[in-house]
Design brief:
This protein is 34% helix and 23% strand. The chain is elongated. The chain is of the alpha+beta class and 128 residues long. The longest helix has 19 residues.
Length: 128
């Protein structure tokens, strides 16, 4: 198997992934997964597609993560890993889609409007 590239996005976070056969090492911005995401919940989110297909120890994953917060980065990485696994074996797509890992979450921050303090908040209205 050759290397497989994929991209995942969530909010302002972008995850670029290179997947190749190996022993299950996940490296994010030249740091191990456990160092980059100390939270076990975020580590679980990142590994969800691998756990679904029972291939945690099968692939080495190198990641370039940029932008956003840690939760958005973890979910962007989950999408990128799922897309890479589908490129490797297209028959896995249905199993990942059922779990919701193939869908790009379109929600992002609403822009701030002029004449308002925030996107939806208004300044106090005074009738008199």
């Amino acid at each position: 198997m050759e290397t497989v590239n994929a991209v995942g996005r969530r909010k302002a976070a972008i995850a670029r992934v290179i997947v190749k056969e190996g022993n299950g090492a996940i490296t994010i911005n030249k740091r191990p997964l456990e160092v980059y995401f100390p939270s076990s919940i975020l580590q679980f989110i990142v590994k969800q597609p691998l756990n679904t297909l029972d291939c945690v120890e099968k692939y080495d994953i190198h990641v370039n993560l940029d932008g956003g917060g840690y939760k958005g980065q973890a979910e962007a990485l989950r999408l990128a890993i799922a897309r890479a696994l589908v490129k490797i074996n297209p028959e896995d797509k249905h199993a990942l889609r059922v779990e919701g890992f193939m869908t790009r979450d379109p929600r992002s921050v609403e822009r701030k409007k002029p004449g308002q303090p925030k996107a939806r908040k208004r300044f106090q209205f005074s009738k008199r």
